Amino acid sequence: MKILFSDEDIVVCVKTAGYLSQAGDGKHKGMVDALAEALGGEIFPVHRLDREVGGVMVYARNKAAAAALSRQVAERKMQKIYRVHTEVSTVESRGRMEDLLYFDRRKNKSFVVRRERNGVKKAMLDYRLISRTEGECLFEAEILTGRTHQIRVQFASRGMPLLGDRRYGGKASEKGIGLFSYSIAFDHPRTGERMTFTAEED
Considering the entire predicted model, what is its pTM? Predict the structure, then answer.
């Protein structure tokens, strides 16, 4: 874990892959616990990142900041950009993916479906191809809706499972899942200043 910024209202950090975004559950370590130990006081999560995925996240340090940041998430004012690694590219070099997703809690897996029904939610993201080498394509993706496993299932449904993402058809990788939260932008909950933070993959 690396702390990029901290004040009395927020803390911005680089989440360690393998840690839960929330508090630990006894089986896995949690970022809330790690940040509370490092900074003291309460830590409030306002958005999520899959346990297997690392990258930039923002947490609130009081209830007022948590409410303000949560509103930005709900109103899509918080911008989140990811780096996505796939084996192949089957899409145009840039564009938008729009799907209907259903999350099966028993299987802990999302599925692209054709019709709207109970539990189905719309998912959108914008993407662009950054580079292509033998055996790997690197995309940048901005999520416009925050759905469970959204990037992973939307890319996989187009024949582009993420490297290391066995759950959605990717090949095993020692590096883990090829997904990283590269950048986050939001308005500071107290001052209103637009703040942007980025981090590079290890």
Answer: 0.93
